């Protein structure tokens, strides 16, 4: 999953409060914390209040899908901000790391459901022209308690 996220780091994430819509954010990955995804957001962002959250990810090639459950909290650890900072982030925060609206959001993943769509050639042809796809022509699906798979 992390390899796929590095190639297309956009995730839809929202609070699991039945009121908030999800929004697209750019994932910031720290290889030392594989069950945590970081996001730079504005302090006025609806996610800044924290709480239970759900995130959905579709890989750039649309062959891998993930639904992640966990919680978000603001964690303005200056060492982590320094570690994750980039020119792309700076484009959103013109005053740099000292921008008064800058917040670092930590998403701690509790569990995930992952799907990999790796259809066989026969399965792809059946999708194009009709026909029942057999189990051995499908991709794979996993429910995991951590994202190291």
From TrEMBL:
Question: One Pfam annotation, family name?
Answer: Pyrid_ox_like
Domain General stress protein FMN-binding split barrel per the UniProt entry, residue ranges: 2-125
Q: Which domain of life is it from?
A: Bacteria
Name by which UniProt lists this protein: Pyridoxamine 5'-phosphate oxidase family protein
